[in-house]
Structures are given as structure tokens and as C-alpha cells.
Amino acid sequence: MKWLNLLIKYRLPLGIILLALAIFTNIQTSFWPSFILYLIAVVLIVGHFLFGPMRLIQTCMEEGDVDGAKKVLDSVWFPALLIKPVRSVYYTVKGNLDMMNQDYAAAEKNLKKSNELMNSSTLMKGQLQQAEGANKLQLGMLAIQKGDMKGGESYIRQAIRAGLPDNENNAAAYLQLCSIMMNKREFRAAKDYFRKAKAYKPTTPQIVDQIKQIEKYIGRMPG
After folding, report:
1. What is the C-alpha separation between 178 and 193, in angstroms, rounded?
2. Chain centroid to CA 103
3. What contacts 111, CB < 8 A, 6 or more positions away?
């Protein structure tokens, strides 16, 4: 689908060129010969501002091109014009990039914007529920990092209820709940969440290492 990526990348300048050509044709002849040019130009220009280059950002993230994703994200001049589902994805990606840069205040701000848009969009509730779960999980991690254990626990429970996209995210969520329960000295719940985390058989080195660390002493806990 390289042709589609190229179209998305250049649709604004292409739309402007076609619009100029339509105006020229209209002046030289009449409206109807230029109608199809006007139509295509409007579709391209309006599409650029309503749907943005989210597909290009997704491709960059899948290829691990963080700089490329940031460059594409910066090309969105007016995020408020994006339709709600796309705008939510925009702020989610922006929040993820902020977390990579360890700008946690900006990450929290952008993820909360994304979460608000998800909650207000009936389309997203039906089609992107897992994205909502991943978003809430990240907000939970940020809250815990700030020392807000109660808020972090609330977000993580909401994330699990909303649904998470893969085994790694599910394992991470249950490990966080396990740690919270250990701090609250609710050892039976901690063991239960630890078993659930292991059942997802995560492969991410960081999560695997965390499981190994907890496993060293969770068996000695009462309950």
C-alpha cells in the first residue's frame, strides 16, 4: 500500500495544485469542465485536515522510526480539526512519544486528552475499546510513578475492564496490581494478580525480569 502512503503524504500539496488548476480551467472555459478538479481538490484538502497522516505515523511506529513518527506528528497543524477518533489517536501517539522522551507531565496531559475524546466518542467505544484500555494503563503507570497509588490502581482496573490489546499489556497491568496489593499488604490478592500476570506468558525482557524478581519472595508471603 505504498501508493496510499504517498497519497496521504502529498495529498495537501496535490489538492492545492488541483484547486489552482480547477480555478484556471474555470476562468478559461466554464465551471462544469473544472467541476471534477474542484471535487478532487476539496476531497484531498478536507481529508488532510479531518483525517491527518495517522497511517504514516502508524507505519513509522511499526518500523521503530521514532524520529519519523515525530516529524509526521509535527506536520499536523490543526489537531482540533481532526475527527474525534483520529484526534484521540493523535494525542495517544503524542503521549507515547512524550513518555519515550521522559516528559511525563506532557505525556499525562496528552493521554488524558485522548482518554476524554474516547469517552465522548460512541464510535470509539465500539471500535477502539482496546486502545482505550492501553491508554488507561499508561495513565495508571504515570500516576504510580508520581506516587499516586490510589489513582494508579483505579486507572489500571479501568484498563483491564476496557480490554488490553495483547499479552504484554495484560501482564504489565496485573503485575502493577500485584505490586500495589503487596504495598497494601493484601498478600492473597497480590498472589492472585501475580498468577494472572504469569498466565499471559509475556516475553518483553523488562516484564519477564519483573516477574523473576517478584517470584523470589512472593511464595514466602502469608495468605
Report:
1. 5
2. 16
3. 91, 92, 95, 135, 138, 139, 142
The b-or-e profile of 112-133 (16+ CB within 10 A means b, else e) is ebbbebbeebeebeeebeebbb
H helix or E strand, kind and range, residue 145: helix 129-145
Phi, psi of 78, rounded to the nearest 5 degrees: -130, 80
Give the cell for residue 152. Answer: 494508579
Is 21 in contact with 42 (CB distance < 8 Å)? Answer: no
| Residue 74 to residue 166: CA distance in whole angstroms | 29
Tell me the pTM: 0.76
- Helix locations, 29-128, DSSP H: 31-51, 54-62, 66-74, 84-100, 104-120, 122-127
**Residues contacting 6, CB < 8 A, separation 6+:** none
Integer CA distances (angstroms), 98 to 76, 81, 92, in order: 16, 22, 10
The contacts of residue 215 (CB under 8 Å, 6+ apart) are 194
Name the nearest CA neighbour of 221 among 194, 182, 172.
182
pLDDT in tens, 185-200: 999 999 999 999 999 9
